[in-house]
Each structure stands twice: as structure tokens, then as C-alpha cells.
Amino acid sequence: MNEKNNTLLIYTLLYFGFLYVPVLFLPIFSFNDANFMSFPLAGFTTEHYEEMWSKRNLHKALWASIKVGVVASVVSTTIALFAAKAFARYKFRGEKISYGGIMMPFLIPEIILAVAILVIWVNLGFKLGLVPVTIGHTLFCTPFAMLILIARIEGFDFSLEEASRDLGENAWGTFFRVSFPLYLPGIIAALLLSFIISFDEFILAFFLTGSDATLPMYMWGQMRFVQKLPHVLALGAVIIVFTTFIVLLAFWLRNVGQGKAKKDITMKL
Amino acid sequence: MNNSFIQINNISKHFADVKAVDDVSFEIKEGEFFSLLGPSGCGKTTLLRLLAGFEYPTSGNLLIDGTDITALPPDKRPTNMVFQNYAIFPHLNVEKNIQFGLRKLGLSNDEIDKRVKNVLSLVKLEGYEERFSNQLSGGQRQRVALARALVRQPKVLLLDEPLGALDKKLRDEMQLELRTLQKNIGITFVFVTHDQQEAISMSDRVAVMNEGKIQQLSEPNELYKNPENIFVSDFIGETNFLKAETKSRDGDFINVSIEGLGEFKIKNNLNIVENSSDVVCSIRPESMMISKVKSDWDICLDAKICQTSYLGEMTRFYVEAKGIEKIITVSSQHFDNQSFENNECFISISLEDISLLNKK
What is the mean pLDDT of the segment spanning B172-200? Predict the structure, then answer.
């Protein structure tokens, strides 16, 4: 019994080590007083962070990524909510085809999606920039958002909506007073996940940004110069902290709410 | 008192090729406790949902208090529903749940408070205002669902098997309470159940449904004593069916030859035709007498006990009698399985307890 537990423990430690040790090097070297990622460590410095903060282009790229992320996550979550509601609640003709249609961007290699959008966008005579990136990201995030929302809505007791109608609310009132508050944890989770996916998406951005770089594009651009590596490490460390924060926020939001009742339903998510 | 308060006129509801409700017409009186009773899939719930507005009929129309509601959405109907699973809003506490349906009624805050207070005392839930659904027992949830519907003062309250999820003792209590409540407030109740005992004990009238059609609509004691067909006879209470064949008619009576019993002249309430073998006789287990010695009843058979089951307030005997193919069930409060030697007994039947039914 004990032996078995030890084996599992070792496996678990190896697994987490494999996952997180490389990632941990980023913050370590971001405080290292040298231009190269190599041991032994040369000494502690916050210089790289100061350098990072001073880059105007980085600020621009960050702002671009946030704009794209917010619009893409809001639009894709909205589309996904309507779709998820339809798939979870109703049986209709063309259900499977529509589902496949929405899930497609999830399965098509991203590079092909990127090329396809690029070709159409340019042929329509539009300029490359953040708009096509946002469209691409919306397309790409929708299946993820929909999977999260379907998981939530499928466990939903639809007699609650009937009860609301029965108690005198029309369809809109029912949505805002009953469905929306009960879907909310799922909606927030979908928003956060979509934002994160868009925030670190590279291939679509690479093809479609033109001159307005998003954050991953900016990082990639900087990697070509050895002396610029340290501040990219610093940036990477900040992104790790930020991403962890968002995920924790999502968990916290799932459990917060009026009474334990809400928690019980959200556990299904 | 309006005798046709709810009018159900030639209502049919088809789902694809299933006729869930098949050309049903009847009326429900104002202030009546009316039950729709039947096995699962008989169309009773669909009929209730048609009244609530969650489904729209394939054909026919519905009137409540003289107004045609056939095409109205649920929020425009003078009905409220108590759901089978109660459907208490989990993100709202008891008080907010009850207030939910009052917002659209244009009441003053004082009036809202007053109504909520009254209804809470009506269902005995004072002090539970702040609780959430998962902090309530099944019985309390049921009361919240009831309060939430009643606070809107509907013309008709629809109840979809509201006692199904409760344990037996609580269910018996709630049956009594619901019945008293309904008499006190005088609102018309339409109650759906598959439990015949529940329907019989609570209702003013019961409509027994099967395969989308009303099999019989009458007062509870009529259902039990004078079932109109084999389905109702079988569904309400327990019974023994014996093969039979009708002979000649004699006014209100008819001569019948019954399997293993012989030929008798019995009352022909259902106007059954002569010389037909498409009929059966039904005899309730508790209308027969089991005894150690011969009796002077109309019919007395020699029989042998195959099996007994002791039920506390009575014992059920499964007996074999000569000339009767099926095992007959007899129940008795006087004897138990210790009473008979060698399993030999006598079964006595009175002619007035035999009812003659058409097979179809």
C-alpha cells in the first residue's frame, strides 16, 4: 500500500516538474544580472524590469493585445452563449451540422485559418491590422467558449425558465432575472478563457497584424536580438503572474455568490 | 358557482406521430379540486402543460372563466403552476422567490409585503424568508413553490405531481393540508398524479386518463364502485377479472355466465349487449369473504390457498378455485395465514359486488 503511494508520489512530482520547471526558469533569469540564460547566476537585479517598462513599443503591443482580447472574448462569448443555449435546450434540424460548423476552427490547423482570412481580407481590399486579428480570434475562441457554456447549460434545470414564464415574466425578463444570473459563472469563465486564448495567440496575429503588433508578436520580434532577451524574460514572468491571477480570479468568481445554492450548481461547471 | 369555469374543447396534442392528448373535452367547475389521474405517458402532464401554456394544442381550444386562452403565452394566463421538482430559483432566497411573480402586477410595496406575509403564514413558512432552496427540506420546498404560485392569486392553480418527491408520511400530511388549503382559499386546483389513492382521497372529481383519452370522469367513490371500463377498474384499487359471457337481457339486468361461478342475473349499469363474450367480470379482493366454513352468500366456492402476504392491517390471500383459470386475490382483516388447516378455505361473493365490463 505504502509503496504504491510512493510510486504515485514520485510520478506526480516528475509530472509537475516537467510541466513547471522550465517555466520557473523565466522568473529566475529575469532577475539575473546577465544577458544570457546560463548558470551560475550572476547576481540579483531589477534592471530588466526597468528596461521592460521603458519600452514604448511594448506598451503599444500590450494595449493592442488587450483591445483585441476584450473584443474577441466578449463577441465570442456572446455568440457562444446563444449557440450553447440552443444546443443544450432544443432539438432542431441541422443541429449536428451547426455544432460541427462552430467547432470547426477548433480542428482546422490555425495556420490554414490564418492564411484563409488573410487571403479573403486582402482580396476584399481591406488593410491588415487589429481588426482582422480580432475577427480571427473571435472565430478561434468561440468553440472554447461554447464548450464551457454547454457544460454549464446542460446541467441547467429548464423548469426554472418555465417557472419564470408561469410567474408572469416574458422571455426577456426570464433571461435577465433567471437564466443570465444562473449562467453567469459559466459566462465569466468563458470570457476569461477566451481572453487568455486571444492574449497569447500567435499564428493568426502573425499573419494578420500588419504593423500593429500584439504582445506575442512583440516578444517574437525581440527574440532576434540577444541583448534584448532579458527584458522579454521579465515580460514573460509578468505574463505568468497575470495569467495565474486570472485563473484564480475565475475560480474565486465561480464560488462567490448569493448563498450556497449557487455554489452547488456551479460545481457542475 | 360556475360549472364550466375551465372548458377543454376537443383538445389534441401530437408530438411527431405520438398522440399525447387525443381529442379530449371536459369542463372543470369553479373552486373544484380536480385531478388528472393516469399511468406515466397517459397525457395528463401534457394536458396540464397545455393549460399552463408551455405547450400549444395541435387542435381544439381552451377557455378559463369565459376567456379563450388557447394562444396566450404562460405569462398572460390566469394560471400558476407548482412544478414537480418545485423549480425554486436557486439564486434567490425564499422571500425573493415568492416576490418574483409580483413585480409585473403593479402592486405597491406595502401590498407586496402584505401578500408575501400572508402567503408565508398560509403555508406555515414564517421565519424562512432568508433561506435558500438548498437549505430547505423537500416539504419546505414544496411549500415555497405553493406560496410562490398562490401569492399571485391565480384563478387556477396547476399542480404537477407535487407530492411525488416526498416520503410517505409527509405525503399523507401534505395531502390533508393541501385539501384544507384549497377549501379555505377556494381557488380551482387542477392536480396531476399517477397515485390513485392520492387522487381519490383529495379530489372532488377525477378524470382517469390513458393513451391520451379520458377513460372516466367522475367523483372518487363512483370511480371505485362503478368503473366504466376495464382500464379504470384495473387502475383504481385492485381487482380480479373473470371471464364471462352475456346471455339474454332482462330489463336493467342481464344474465351472465361467469367462469367457475355459474350463470347469474346481475345489474347491467353499462348497458352491455346480450350474447357477447367480449366482457369480463370484476370482483374486488376486499368485497369477497374468506372463511373456514361454508357461508350462505350468493356464491360460495371451495378453494385452496396458494400464498399469503401479511400487510399489517389486513392479510392478502392468493387462492385457487375450481374452474377459474387465474389465481384470485382476496383480502381479509379477520384471518391471517395461521387460520387455515391444509390451506383449505371457502370464498364467498355477493352478486351486487360483481361488476360487468366491456373488454374494450
Answer: 92
